[in-house]
Amino acid sequence: MSTPTTQAPPAADAAPRRGTASGFLSGPAGRNAGLVIALVILCVVGIATAGDRFASTDNLLTILRLAAVTGVVSVGMTFVIIGGGIDLSVGALVALSSVWATTLATQALAEDTHWILMAGTALLVGGVAGLVNGVVIAYGKLVAFIATLAMLAAARGLAEIIANRRTQIVQDQDFLRFFSGSPLGVPTLVWIFALVAVLGWVLLNRTTFGRRTFAVGGNAEAARLAGIRVQRHTVALYVLSGVTCGIAAVMLMARTTTGSSTHGTLLELDAIAAVVIGGTLLIGGRGTIVGTVLGVLIFTALSNVFTLNNLSSSAQAVAKGVIIVAAVLLQQRVAAGRRQRRSPKAVPPTAAEGGPAGASPGVPAP
Amino acid sequence: MSARHRRLLTTTVAVVGAAALVTGCTGNTPEATSSAGGNDAASSNDETGDTVVIGFSAPAADHGWMAQITAAAQAEADRYEDIELRVAEGTNDVSAQIAQVETFINDGVDAIVLLPFDGDAMTPIALEAMQAGIPVINVDREFSDPNAARVTVLGDNYGMGISAGQYVCSQLADKPDAVVAEVAGIDSLPLTQERSQGFSDALSECGLDVDNRVAAEFTVESGEEVTANLLQAAPQIDAIWNHDDDQGIGVLAAITNAGRDEFFMVGGAGSANAMRSIQAGDSVLQATVIYPASQAADGVRLARLLAQDKGLSDLTDVEVPRQITLSAPVVTKDNVDSYIDSAFES
């Protein structure tokens, strides 16, 4: 809150709310505590019903490994949503990146050089697609929902064209060996997830970039008057989300040993659900990485507990729906209570003036 | 070898079809192939006759199996000088597919081979074609009215389950308390329910049952995900049946990742990938159950016979049968060579 760029008067009305998100233990601790309790309950149910099969290191690592892909995408999604936007194209971008990185041409090139080239391709494709999203939204003034919906359709279509609707097998054994390894007993995929989450947390809570993200999402117009280049920042957020999609594509290629245009189907919904139950406001301006990570873990643990008990995937879907509604209801209660305690006259976040970053009519800042 | 072999195989299909009318399915064993030996009978039908125009319409080739359906139909038509195959652009839009059939009717084609995106929705237009005197060959997804098709060529989903179940039984005959797991496809589809029903029916005949069941979504990613959880749920497994070889790539990835190999796995649908794996014998995948991608190719051949007023030469009956249910044979290392050439690339 002490950066030179955000000291202009209009930023002040975003301050009370930003105060709640400034540290990861002080403000949102209450919300996160709720999520931890939910996770603990799930674990207790898991141990009670499946015993040692649930409470084993192997199973814990399986849950973390399965959470990793959704988790990485959700971290990117958290930034976009805090910044007042939404990215519906993440699943399609994962598919496109995975397909592009596993074409015969890319694989042949990677064979001559190094598998890092495949990973680089995926990140680049994700980043460029994210850039397109961002430019269309920030400078083309399209609503984020529509722009990324268009990208969702187009990117998956392009992935199908490139892959010719076939499943492309990853041939590079070094690639597979690297990503299926377990340094210090923890799968590489989980390390990547942890790394992305920690970097995301630092970026959001300890840098100017993070503070600007909160400002842009909380009140785009105020942020612009405060000297933040709202449009450029919005583009950066979507690029960030695109790059996390690229990372997720590499992880998915390692997990399934394939690149395919069917990868990441409905991943956007899983990511948004995780972000929302993690306490991030869908209209932007508030949210935490820790909450998002807990949200992802809750969903993954849920499906693990259900499978351990041999329950159908339909029952699982019902439980998932109930959890989303319950979590958001609970958060609204908590948030409302805190707002009243803090300042009776405070404007509820839903009434924050100025549209989301994507819809802001702001002129480029000087 | 391939032309002669394919003829043998087609003859076998004809024989199996005949048997299906009376008894249901028979195993497509190598013996049956060699004893069919209907070369002479088949070749008289293979002689070039009047040129027939056949309209062909199928859903979009959005997965390996469906792509092979159209490719095989085209390849079959190319083998006959007297077939002119008009292939409509594959579509998952029912109204577009109806328009395609309307065009065929207006053009006055001699026969229509139709793999409907939705059997119910395509029934009225198929009826219209039949009333216009154009025989319709219905492939894979059945119409709701039997009068809408002259011949119906079907795969056997229930039979796939039976074949897989019988194979598992034959491998685990001496283990009454063996743990059997099932990785199904999309659970809300009738075809998945039929496969699962067949599997559990066949297992119950040898005193086994499905101990752990998960459902994926026919995609590699979902296959990996549900299997990773499944392997945690069941610390010791004797056999796994996976409904679909496309998602099977993910299932195998999860198994490799978990370092498990105490069980054997049976696949489904019969992709070239799966068959290469079976041939190499380097994974837990021991067998796969075929859901033939040659159905539309058979449809094209039957359409030609109908248009030329010929019967199935291996049957006594003068007319082509009304319904043909294809067999769902089990492919193992022993007979994989006979099937791998006609398998689809996933």
TrEMBL record, chain A:
Keyword field: Cell membrane, Membrane, Transmembrane, Transmembrane helix
Transmembrane segments annotated in the record for this chain: 33-51, 63-82, 88-109, 116-136, 142-163, 184-204, 235-254, 266-299
Localization annotation: Cell membrane
Bias (Low complexity) ranges: 348-366
Coiled-coil zones: none
Nucleotidyltransferase as UniProt keyword: no
Chain residue ranges for the region called Disordered: 339-366
Any one cellular-component term (Gene Ontology): plasma membrane
Record InterPro entries: ABC_transp_permease
A single MF term (Gene Ontology): transmembrane transporter activity
CDD domains: TM_PBP1_transp_AraH_like (cd06579)
UniProt topology in membrane: Multi-pass membrane protein
Signal peptide: none
Keyword set includes Transmembrane helix: yes
The protein's name: Ribose transport system permease protein
Species name: Klenkia marina
UniProtKB/TrEMBL annotation, chain B:
Keywords noted in UniProt: Signal
Any one GO molecular-function label of the UniProt entry: carbohydrate binding
InterPro entries, per the entry: Peripla_BP_I, SBP_2_dom
Subcellular localization: Cell envelope
Presence of keyword Transport: no
A GO CC term assigned to this protein in UniProt: cell envelope
Pfam families: Peripla_BP_4
Periplasmic binding protein domain location: 54-310
PROSITE patterns: PROKAR_LIPOPROTEIN
Official protein name in the record: Ribose transport system substrate-binding protein
Lineage: Bacteria, Bacillati, Actinomycetota, Actinomycetes, Geodermatophilales
Superkingdom classification of source: Bacteria
Family (UniProt): Belongs to the bacterial solute-binding protein 2 family.
